[in-house]
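Re: weekly structure request thread

Next one in the queue (75 aa):
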Amino acid sequence: MIPIKFASYAFSFVMSFLMSGVVSLTMMVIELETLAEVLSAWPYAWIVAMLVAFPFSLFVVPLTHRLLSKIVSDK
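Done, posted below.
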């Protein structure tokens, strides 16, 4: 199990892993013509997307939490 002090990092990793996978696959399907092209190009695209998404999510997730805490009412 992951200690609670690393929860924000784990959340950012899992969220960016899933989102970068879905987005990179979507872009490959849109851009490429055959399933073979998609399946051969997608792993590299996913790795590149993950290398961008994970560090970015480490910045964006806390910012989003702060923003939402200001605009969401607890009533």
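The mean pLDDT is 93. Helices lie at 7-31, 35-71.
Next request, please.
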